[in-house]
Amino acid sequence: MSGPLDRIMVGSAPDSWGVWFPEDPRQVPWERFLDEVAEAGYSWIELGPYGYLPTDPARLADEVDRRGLRVSAGTVFAGLHRGPSVWEATWAQVSQVAALTREMGARHLVVIPSFWRDDRTAEPLEPPELTGEQWAHLTKGMERLGHEVKEAYGLDLVVHPHADTHIDTEDHVERFLDSTDGELVNLCLDTGHYAYCGGDSVELIENYGERIGYLHLKQVDPEVLAGVVRDRLPFGPAVRRKVMCEPPSGVPELEPVLVAAQRLGVELFAIVEQDMYPCEPDEPLPIAVRTRKFLRSCGA
Protein backbone atom coordinates (compact mmCIF):
# COMPACT_ATOMS: atom_id res chain seq x y z
CA MET A 1 0.00 0.00 0.00
CA SER A 2 1.30 3.41 -1.01
CA GLY A 3 -0.20 5.56 1.75
CA PRO A 4 -3.54 7.31 1.92
CA LEU A 5 -4.84 8.55 -1.42
CA ASP A 6 -6.60 11.45 0.27
CA ARG A 7 -7.23 13.46 -2.90
CA ILE A 8 -9.16 10.60 -4.55
CA MET A 9 -12.93 10.52 -3.99
CA VAL A 10 -14.17 7.01 -4.72
CA GLY A 11 -17.68 6.23 -5.93
CA SER A 12 -19.64 3.87 -8.15
CA ALA A 13 -22.27 4.12 -10.86
CA PRO A 14 -25.38 2.40 -12.25
CA ASP A 15 -23.10 0.84 -14.88
CA SER A 16 -21.63 -1.43 -12.17
CA TRP A 17 -25.17 -2.73 -11.59
CA GLY A 18 -25.66 -3.60 -15.26
CA VAL A 19 -27.56 -0.41 -16.11
CA TRP A 20 -27.14 0.98 -19.64
CA PHE A 21 -30.61 2.30 -20.43
CA PRO A 22 -33.24 4.53 -18.77
CA GLU A 23 -35.70 1.63 -18.84
CA ASP A 24 -34.99 -2.04 -19.41
CA PRO A 25 -36.66 -5.06 -17.77
CA ARG A 26 -33.24 -6.76 -17.50
CA GLN A 27 -31.89 -4.02 -15.22
CA VAL A 28 -32.24 -3.79 -11.44
CA PRO A 29 -34.81 -1.22 -10.25
CA TRP A 30 -33.25 2.11 -9.31
CA GLU A 31 -34.25 1.77 -5.65
CA ARG A 32 -32.25 -1.44 -5.41
CA PHE A 33 -29.23 0.19 -7.05
CA LEU A 34 -29.29 3.06 -4.51
CA ASP A 35 -29.75 0.68 -1.57
CA GLU A 36 -26.93 -1.61 -2.67
CA VAL A 37 -24.40 1.05 -3.69
CA ALA A 38 -24.74 2.55 -0.20
CA GLU A 39 -24.54 -0.92 1.39
CA ALA A 40 -21.32 -1.62 -0.53
CA GLY A 41 -19.68 1.37 1.16
CA TYR A 42 -19.70 4.01 -1.58
CA SER A 43 -20.70 7.60 -0.82
CA TRP A 44 -20.60 9.02 -4.38
CA ILE A 45 -22.65 7.99 -7.43
CA GLU A 46 -23.27 9.14 -10.99
CA LEU A 47 -26.74 9.64 -12.43
CA GLY A 48 -26.33 6.98 -15.12
CA PRO A 49 -28.62 7.07 -18.17
CA TYR A 50 -30.97 10.06 -17.86
CA GLY A 51 -34.34 8.77 -16.65
CA TYR A 52 -33.05 5.70 -14.81
CA LEU A 53 -32.97 7.54 -11.48
CA PRO A 54 -35.87 9.92 -10.73
CA THR A 55 -35.50 13.15 -12.74
CA ASP A 56 -37.47 15.31 -10.28
CA PRO A 57 -34.65 17.05 -8.35
CA ALA A 58 -36.48 17.21 -5.00
CA ARG A 59 -37.39 13.54 -5.11
CA LEU A 60 -33.93 12.43 -6.23
CA ALA A 61 -32.26 14.59 -3.57
CA ASP A 62 -34.44 12.95 -0.92
CA GLU A 63 -33.71 9.41 -2.16
CA VAL A 64 -29.97 10.06 -2.35
CA ASP A 65 -29.71 11.95 0.95
CA ARG A 66 -31.47 9.38 3.06
CA ARG A 67 -29.01 6.73 1.91
CA GLY A 68 -26.01 8.94 2.71
CA LEU A 69 -25.09 9.32 -0.98
CA ARG A 70 -24.00 12.28 -3.10
CA VAL A 71 -23.91 12.76 -6.88
CA SER A 72 -20.55 13.38 -8.57
CA ALA A 73 -21.62 13.78 -12.24
CA GLY A 74 -24.17 13.36 -14.97
CA THR A 75 -23.48 11.69 -18.34
CA VAL A 76 -24.53 12.44 -21.91
CA PHE A 77 -23.65 11.22 -25.41
CA ALA A 78 -22.85 13.70 -28.21
CA GLY A 79 -22.00 13.46 -31.93
CA LEU A 80 -20.44 16.89 -32.38
CA HIS A 81 -18.09 15.69 -35.16
CA ARG A 82 -21.17 15.92 -37.40
CA GLY A 83 -20.93 19.71 -37.35
CA PRO A 84 -23.11 22.72 -36.46
CA SER A 85 -26.32 21.07 -37.72
CA VAL A 86 -26.46 18.84 -34.60
CA TRP A 87 -25.82 21.63 -32.09
CA GLU A 88 -29.42 22.43 -31.16
CA ALA A 89 -30.47 18.81 -30.63
CA THR A 90 -27.26 18.18 -28.66
CA TRP A 91 -27.77 21.23 -26.46
CA ALA A 92 -31.39 20.26 -25.72
CA GLN A 93 -30.25 16.87 -24.48
CA VAL A 94 -27.24 18.21 -22.59
CA SER A 95 -29.32 20.93 -20.88
CA GLN A 96 -31.72 18.38 -19.44
CA VAL A 97 -28.92 16.31 -17.90
CA ALA A 98 -26.85 19.34 -16.85
CA ALA A 99 -29.79 20.91 -15.02
CA LEU A 100 -30.40 17.79 -12.92
CA THR A 101 -26.66 17.37 -12.34
CA ARG A 102 -26.39 20.94 -11.00
CA GLU A 103 -29.49 20.51 -8.82
CA MET A 104 -27.80 17.50 -7.19
CA GLY A 105 -24.81 19.65 -6.27
CA ALA A 106 -22.45 17.90 -8.70
CA ARG A 107 -19.77 19.78 -10.60
CA HIS A 108 -18.99 17.52 -13.59
CA LEU A 109 -20.68 16.53 -16.82
CA VAL A 110 -19.21 13.46 -18.53
CA VAL A 111 -19.58 13.53 -22.33
CA ILE A 112 -19.16 10.33 -24.34
CA PRO A 113 -18.67 10.70 -28.12
CA SER A 114 -21.27 8.86 -30.18
CA PHE A 115 -20.50 5.35 -31.43
CA TRP A 116 -19.27 4.80 -34.99
CA ARG A 117 -20.81 1.31 -35.16
CA ASP A 118 -24.04 -0.14 -33.88
CA ASP A 119 -23.50 -1.53 -30.42
CA ARG A 120 -25.90 -4.43 -30.99
CA THR A 121 -25.37 -5.45 -34.60
CA ALA A 122 -21.74 -4.27 -35.17
CA GLU A 123 -22.99 -2.60 -38.36
CA PRO A 124 -20.74 0.39 -39.17
CA LEU A 125 -22.72 3.63 -38.89
CA GLU A 126 -19.77 5.80 -39.92
CA PRO A 127 -16.07 5.30 -40.71
CA PRO A 128 -13.94 4.70 -37.58
CA GLU A 129 -11.55 7.51 -38.60
CA LEU A 130 -12.65 11.14 -38.82
CA THR A 131 -11.69 13.48 -41.64
CA GLY A 132 -9.75 16.65 -40.81
CA GLU A 133 -12.97 18.64 -41.10
CA GLN A 134 -14.78 16.28 -38.73
CA TRP A 135 -11.92 16.56 -36.19
CA ALA A 136 -12.31 20.32 -36.34
CA HIS A 137 -16.07 20.00 -35.78
CA LEU A 138 -15.45 17.64 -32.86
CA THR A 139 -12.84 19.74 -31.07
CA LYS A 140 -14.53 23.11 -31.64
CA GLY A 141 -17.90 21.59 -30.76
CA MET A 142 -16.62 20.16 -27.47
CA GLU A 143 -14.98 23.50 -26.62
CA ARG A 144 -18.24 25.31 -27.29
CA LEU A 145 -20.13 22.75 -25.22
CA GLY A 146 -17.64 23.16 -22.38
CA HIS A 147 -18.06 26.93 -22.48
CA GLU A 148 -21.87 26.81 -22.60
CA VAL A 149 -22.17 24.18 -19.86
CA LYS A 150 -19.91 26.23 -17.58
CA GLU A 151 -21.78 29.46 -18.32
CA ALA A 152 -25.31 28.05 -17.98
CA TYR A 153 -24.85 25.39 -15.29
CA GLY A 154 -21.46 25.95 -13.62
CA LEU A 155 -20.32 22.44 -14.57
CA ASP A 156 -16.91 21.24 -15.79
CA LEU A 157 -17.02 19.24 -19.02
CA VAL A 158 -14.96 16.03 -19.08
CA VAL A 159 -14.83 14.00 -22.30
CA HIS A 160 -14.78 10.21 -21.91
CA PRO A 161 -12.63 8.26 -24.43
CA HIS A 162 -14.67 5.16 -25.20
CA ALA A 163 -14.37 1.98 -27.28
CA ASP A 164 -16.05 2.19 -30.70
CA THR A 165 -16.05 6.01 -30.69
CA HIS A 166 -13.71 8.41 -32.48
CA ILE A 167 -11.85 9.21 -29.23
CA ASP A 168 -10.51 5.82 -28.19
CA THR A 169 -6.84 5.02 -28.89
CA GLU A 170 -3.78 6.81 -27.50
CA ASP A 171 -3.31 8.67 -30.83
CA HIS A 172 -6.92 9.85 -30.89
CA VAL A 173 -6.92 10.87 -27.21
CA GLU A 174 -3.68 12.82 -27.56
CA ARG A 175 -4.88 14.47 -30.77
CA PHE A 176 -8.08 15.51 -28.99
CA LEU A 177 -6.18 16.93 -26.01
CA ASP A 178 -3.63 18.71 -28.20
CA SER A 179 -6.45 20.29 -30.21
CA THR A 180 -8.59 21.57 -27.33
CA ASP A 181 -8.34 24.23 -24.63
CA GLY A 182 -8.01 22.91 -21.07
CA GLU A 183 -9.93 25.96 -19.82
CA LEU A 184 -12.99 24.65 -21.67
CA VAL A 185 -12.75 20.86 -21.76
CA ASN A 186 -10.77 18.13 -20.03
CA LEU A 187 -10.73 14.34 -19.86
CA CYS A 188 -12.64 11.67 -18.00
CA LEU A 189 -10.01 8.94 -18.14
CA ASP A 190 -11.66 5.53 -18.09
CA THR A 191 -8.89 3.07 -17.28
CA GLY A 192 -10.77 0.12 -18.78
CA HIS A 193 -11.71 1.72 -22.07
CA TYR A 194 -8.22 3.14 -22.48
CA ALA A 195 -6.65 -0.30 -21.91
CA TYR A 196 -9.26 -1.89 -24.21
CA CYS A 197 -8.01 0.46 -26.93
CA GLY A 198 -4.30 -0.12 -26.18
CA GLY A 199 -3.50 2.94 -24.05
CA ASP A 200 -1.46 3.26 -20.85
CA SER A 201 -3.37 5.18 -18.15
CA VAL A 202 -0.36 5.94 -15.94
CA GLU A 203 1.55 7.33 -18.92
CA LEU A 204 -1.43 9.51 -19.91
CA ILE A 205 -1.74 10.89 -16.37
CA GLU A 206 1.99 11.62 -16.24
CA ASN A 207 2.07 13.30 -19.69
CA TYR A 208 -1.27 15.14 -19.61
CA GLY A 209 -1.85 15.51 -15.87
CA GLU A 210 -3.33 19.01 -16.08
CA ARG A 211 -6.00 17.71 -18.47
CA ILE A 212 -7.22 14.81 -16.29
CA GLY A 213 -10.41 16.09 -14.70
CA TYR A 214 -12.13 12.87 -13.63
CA LEU A 215 -11.51 9.11 -13.48
CA HIS A 216 -13.54 5.98 -14.20
CA LEU A 217 -12.00 2.87 -12.67
CA LYS A 218 -12.37 -0.42 -14.50
CA GLN A 219 -10.27 -3.31 -15.70
CA VAL A 220 -10.05 -5.43 -18.84
CA ASP A 221 -9.51 -9.18 -18.96
CA PRO A 222 -6.55 -9.49 -21.40
CA GLU A 223 -7.49 -13.00 -22.54
CA VAL A 224 -11.07 -12.04 -23.36
CA LEU A 225 -9.81 -8.86 -25.05
CA ALA A 226 -7.53 -10.90 -27.32
CA GLY A 227 -10.60 -12.84 -28.50
CA VAL A 228 -12.59 -9.63 -28.95
CA VAL A 229 -9.84 -8.17 -31.14
CA ARG A 230 -9.51 -11.42 -33.09
CA ASP A 231 -13.25 -11.63 -33.73
CA ARG A 232 -13.61 -7.87 -34.34
CA LEU A 233 -16.45 -7.67 -31.86
CA PRO A 234 -18.20 -4.38 -31.13
CA PHE A 235 -18.23 -3.19 -27.55
CA GLY A 236 -21.68 -4.49 -26.53
CA PRO A 237 -20.99 -8.16 -27.37
CA ALA A 238 -17.50 -7.77 -25.87
CA VAL A 239 -19.09 -6.77 -22.55
CA ARG A 240 -21.37 -9.80 -22.72
CA ARG A 241 -18.20 -11.90 -23.04
CA LYS A 242 -17.09 -10.24 -19.76
CA VAL A 243 -14.21 -8.28 -21.29
CA MET A 244 -14.52 -5.90 -18.33
CA CYS A 245 -13.68 -7.80 -15.17
CA GLU A 246 -13.66 -7.46 -11.41
CA PRO A 247 -10.55 -5.80 -9.94
CA PRO A 248 -7.81 -6.73 -9.28
CA SER A 249 -7.93 -9.59 -11.81
CA GLY A 250 -7.43 -7.51 -14.97
CA VAL A 251 -5.45 -4.62 -16.45
CA PRO A 252 -4.41 -1.93 -15.83
CA GLU A 253 -3.30 -2.31 -12.22
CA LEU A 254 -5.37 0.29 -10.41
CA GLU A 255 -3.03 1.18 -7.56
CA PRO A 256 -0.35 2.76 -9.82
CA VAL A 257 -3.12 4.68 -11.62
CA LEU A 258 -4.46 6.02 -8.31
CA VAL A 259 -0.96 6.88 -7.06
CA ALA A 260 -0.23 8.79 -10.31
CA ALA A 261 -3.56 10.62 -9.94
CA GLN A 262 -2.82 11.47 -6.28
CA ARG A 263 0.51 12.99 -7.36
CA LEU A 264 -1.32 15.54 -9.52
CA GLY A 265 -2.12 17.41 -6.31
CA VAL A 266 -5.80 18.04 -7.10
CA GLU A 267 -8.99 16.43 -5.87
CA LEU A 268 -10.29 13.86 -8.34
CA PHE A 269 -13.34 11.65 -8.46
CA ALA A 270 -12.57 8.00 -9.19
CA ILE A 271 -15.85 6.27 -10.05
CA VAL A 272 -15.93 2.48 -10.33
CA GLU A 273 -17.68 1.42 -13.51
CA GLN A 274 -17.61 -2.28 -14.26
CA ASP A 275 -19.51 -2.69 -17.53
CA MET A 276 -21.68 -5.77 -17.10
CA TYR A 277 -24.84 -5.38 -19.16
CA PRO A 278 -26.88 -7.48 -18.88
CA CYS A 279 -26.25 -9.23 -15.55
CA GLU A 280 -28.09 -11.31 -12.98
CA PRO A 281 -29.70 -9.05 -10.33
CA ASP A 282 -27.78 -10.66 -7.46
CA GLU A 283 -24.39 -10.37 -9.18
CA PRO A 284 -23.42 -6.67 -8.66
CA LEU A 285 -23.55 -6.23 -4.87
CA PRO A 286 -20.92 -8.84 -3.86
CA ILE A 287 -18.59 -7.54 -6.60
CA ALA A 288 -19.14 -3.96 -5.42
CA VAL A 289 -18.36 -4.90 -1.81
CA ARG A 290 -15.14 -6.69 -2.82
CA THR A 291 -14.10 -3.84 -5.15
CA ARG A 292 -14.60 -1.23 -2.43
CA LYS A 293 -12.52 -3.34 -0.05
CA PHE A 294 -9.81 -3.71 -2.69
CA LEU A 295 -9.67 0.05 -3.31
CA ARG A 296 -9.36 0.66 0.43
CA SER A 297 -6.38 -1.70 0.43
CA CYS A 298 -4.82 0.60 -2.19
CA GLY A 299 -5.34 3.56 0.15
CA ALA A 300 -8.43 5.03 -1.55
UniProtKB/TrEMBL annotation:
Q: Where is the Xylose isomerase-like TIM barrel domain?
A: 34-295
Which Pfam families does the entry link to?
AP_endonuc_2
Q: What is the protein name for this chain?
A: Xylose isomerase-like TIM barrel domain-containing protein
Protein source organism: Streptomyces humidus
